[in-house]
Amino acid sequence: MNIKYLPENPYLLLTPGPLSTSKAVKASMLRDWCTWDEDYNSIVQQARSELLTISNLDAKRYTTVLMQGSGTFSVESVIGSVMPESGKLLVLANGAYGQRIAEIARYLKIQCELYDAGDLERHQLEKVNSILAGDSSISHVAVVHCETTTGMLNDIEAIGEVVKKNRRTFIVDAMSSFGGIPIDVENIGIDFLISSANKCIQGVPGFGFVVGKTSELEKCDGLARSLSLDLFDQWKTMEEGHGKWRFTSPTHVVRAFRQALIELNTEGGIPARFQRYAENQRTLVNGMRKLGFETLLPDEFHSPIITTFLSPNAAGYDFVRFYKELKVRGFVIYPGKVTNYQCFRIGNIGEVRPNDMEALISSVRESMYWKLPG
Ligand SMILES: *Cc1c(COP(=O)(O)O)cnc(C)c1O
């Protein structure tokens, strides 16, 4: 390859995705593909089958569908394609992404009940159980695994147990956790899990994917409320066409995704990536606490993905200036998303290691301009 100019990243993205990706992931996009040629379709099939392998799922009972668009398109595709007309969705929310699932249901005129635990709390299992026991019209339950709004990790094992005991279909938005946190899809009883290319798999943005129970997906023929987001039809086309998409597919993004999956394997799979992320997050939180920052959530609620810190209670503190100070030092962080609290977020997923977190802490120390004399 003869490339004159390969730009370097001027800063690390400490965001929940798109995130900093490896050079090889970016370089893998430097050729063009024909959407219906077998060279490309076989990459799609490899990626689909790899998604089942890393989830320890049997291809006889589980399947995957890739869907164009950002992660929300895949969430909307599931909600709009798996709910029968008479169905009712219970959404367990504790942040903006849970709320978004309920909003999708409202847009699609799907009956929906919302149990909002508040941004700082987990859902009470007895309450979930009594809602389900008291309303037999609820057919599906949806929850977010890692609520990226705060960094809260919801207990999908315990919630799944309640959902299965009550015999409802279980939908999990694992957008910001799949690939970075082990998820036992089969034992938890997840029927549809949703994630996207540009989070813990460490690919680039452009499509999302659904890991689903084949027998559940088979029930969805003709249910979709949208043509382009018809999950069942997309699945049929991919199965029958051996990796074909219905409409233009993000070819370069899929090729990069395949490379990202190879790198996930080389790292040691999801358990090894989970360890790295957990160490990143510990390094981050310990360092920030030493500088006087406090986390919004208690440690026991925390995911190893993204952390919310309370803004310093100091006259003259301004997020935008803090952000810019960090950016010139090579780090991009994220604004807060919780109402009622002044805060900011720092992600630790992507091509990021504990030594990057150490370097970040040094830069944060230098960027605390509100502490400097004068
Ligand atoms: C990123 C994310 C999404 C999808 O967001 P997009 O901007 O559409 O990619 C959905 N749910 C969660 C929990 C997320 O972190």
Automatic annotation (TrEMBL):
Protein origin, superkingdom: Bacteria
Swiss-Prot/TrEMBL GO biological process terms: organic phosphonate catabolic process
A GO molecular function held by the record: 2-aminoethylphosphonate-pyruvate transaminase activity
Transmembrane segments: none
Cofactor(s), names only, from the UniProt record: pyridoxal 5'-phosphate
InterPro entries named in the record: Aminotrans_V_dom, NH2EtPonate_pyrv_transaminase, PyrdxlP-dep_Trfase, PyrdxlP-dep_Trfase_major, PyrdxlP-dep_Trfase_small, SP_NH2Trfase/AEP_transaminase
Residues recorded with modification N6-(pyridoxal phosphate)lysine: K199
Subunit structure: Homodimer.
HAMAP family per the UniProt record, alphabetical: PhnW_aminotrans_5
Family of the protein in this entry: Belongs to the class-V pyridoxal-phosphate-dependent aminotransferase family. PhnW subfamily.
PANTHER family for this protein: 2-AMINOETHYLPHOSPHONATE--PYRUVATE TRANSAMINASE
Name this polypeptide is given: 2-aminoethylphosphonate--pyruvate transaminase
Native species: Maribellus luteus
